[in-house]
Amino acid sequence: MTLSARVACLGAAVVVVAGAGCSSHGARPPAPVTTTAVTAAPPSTPSQTTVPPTTTSTLPVPVPVAALPPVPSTPTALAAALASTETAIHNPGTPVVLVPELGATEQRLVATLASHPDWLPAVLAALPATLRAGVSDAVTGDRELSAVPGPTPTAIPPWTIVPPLPADQLLADYQRAQAATGVPWSALAAINLVETRMGRIVGPSSAGAQGPMQFLPSTWAAYGAGGDIHDPGDAIAAAARFLRANGASRDLSGALYRYNPSTHYVRGVRAYAAAMEADVRAYYAFYGWRVYVTTTAGTFLLPEGFAHRS
Question: How far, in Å, CA of 259 to CA of 20, rounded?
C-alpha cells in the first residue's frame, strides 16, 4: 500500500505512503496564510446564455510554495502565530465549520516548525500549556513521515485532487469502523490523512495501491468484504479489519507496521492520532490540510480540481 511520492506538509516533506503526505483568541479566527491558489474559469453572468467548456488552460495548476503568502520566519513570530491559530482551533466558541481553514494555516506553521527542530523547545515553551501537546504531536507526525524512505519524483505525480467527503461523514465512518473492530477511530483518520489527505489524492501508487486508504488489490481481496476499493466508507472499514486481524487490540503499533513496514510511518500515524484523540477539533483541523508535493523542481501546492496533464 504506497503512494511512493514525496508530499510536503509544507516546509518538511513527508511521504504519502501505503497504507500511505494556523488562529486567534475567541471566535474570530485570523485570515489564513494559505491560498486556494489558481481558480477555474469565472462564473457566467446573467446575460450569458451559454457556459464555455472548461479547458486545460482554466484548470487549477500546481502553485509553488514560494508564491504563497510567507509564514513567520523567527521562533518568536512562529510561536505567536501558532498560539493564535491553535487557540482558535481548540476554542469551542469557534464554529467547527471554520476549523478546516484554520487547519490549512496550521499545516504550514507546523511544517515550518518541523523543519527547524532547534526552534521546538523555545516555541513550545512560549505556547499556552494546553496547546503544547497537540502542537508537539503534529510536529512529530511531520518529522517522522518526512523520514519514511521514498524517492523524490522528478515531476508532479499522475494524481487528480478532489474535494474530500464532508468531515462529519468521514468521522462517522471512522467511528463506525471502531465500533465494529475496536480499532481507534483516530488511528484510521490518521492513516487516511497520511495516505491521501482524507481522500483528496486520487491515483494509484507506484506499487498499484488504490483508493483513499491505499490498498493493493490482493490485500483488498482479503479485507474488502466485497466493497468498492475507491469508496471511503468501504476502504475505512477494510483498513480497520486489516488492523484488527494483525493484532491492533494487543499492539496497535505492530498492526500499523504491517500496514506500512516503517517505524517512522508508525510513529507519525500515532502522533497525529494522539492529537485527534485528545481533542476531536484537531481532527477537523487535519481535515483542512492540503496536498503539497515535493519534486526535484521544488515544492508545490496541488489545489482541489488539479488534474495531471501528461
Answer: 9
How many structural domains comprise the chain?
1
- Residue that is written with C-alpha cell 464532508 in the block: 166
pTM value?
Answer: 0.84
Q: What's the grid cell of residue 114?
A: 518541523
Residue 48 falls inside a structural domain: no
Q: Residue 291's domain spans which residues?
A: 1-34+59-310
Provide the pLDDT confidence category of residue 59 given band limits of 50, 70 and 90: confident
Q: How far apart are CA 126 and CA 79, in angstroms?
A: 6
CB 12 within 8 A of CB 117: no
Q: What's at 99, amino acid-wise?
A: V
Distance of CA 76 to the CA centre of its chain: 26
Please write the tens of the pLDDT for every residue from 145-163. Answer: 999 988 888 999 999 999 9
- Give CA–CA dist 231/76, Å, rounded: 44
CA distances from 251 to 160, 256, 257, 272 (A): 35, 9, 10, 17
DSSP assignment of the chain, as one string? ----EEEESSSSEEEE-S------SSS-PPPPS----S--SPPPPTT-SS-PPP-GGGS---EEGGGSPPPP-SHHHHHHHHHHHHHHHH-TTS-GGGHHHHHHHHHHHHHHHHT-GGGHHHHHHHS-HHHHHHHHHHHHHHHHHHTS--PPPSS--S-EE-PPPPHHHHHHHHHHHHHHH---HHHHHHHHHHHHTTTTEES--TT--BTTTTB-HHHHHHHSTT--TT-HHHHHHHHHHHHHHTTTTT-HHHHHHHHS--HHHHHHHHHHHHHHHH-HHHHHHHHT--EEEEETTEEEEE-TT-B---
Residue 46 inside a domain? The answer is: no
